């Protein structure tokens, strides 16, 4: 089974586009579409119609970004890094930072 380079809950840095060099937490991952939603990044405005409980107006929401536009952020390196995979003695597969070698999955 292949493993995702980016997972929900990861801290990532945007490396392309409008929010370049900003970091945030991954809210969701769409493996089929290769897209991620990152908290408070790639915000788009949605106009909502007045409804029962609100007067309508403009709602800001995160739009999905292509996974190639983000890199995992390593707290130890304090920067965006490339991710590697390694198999542990118990056969579990974990991600590690290719810069400092720190294991990223527990
Ligand atoms: Zn690192």
Radius of gyration: 17 Å
Number of strands: 10
Helix fraction by DSSP (H/I, runs of at least 4)? under 10%
Strand content of the residues, in percent? over 45%
Q: Summarize the biggest pleated sheet.
A: 6 strands, antiparallel
What's the CATH class label of the domain at 11-80?
A: Mainly Beta
**Treating each run of at least 4 consecutive H or I residues as one helix, how many helices?**
0
- Mass-distribution shape: elongated
- The computed structural class is mainly beta
**How are the strands of the largest sheet arranged?**
6-3-2-1-7-8
For the record, give the distance between the C-alpha atoms at the N and C termini, rounded to a whole number: 19 Å
Order of helical and strand elements:
EEEEEEEEEE
Mean pLDDT: 92
The CATH topology assignment of the domain at 11-80 is SH3 type barrels
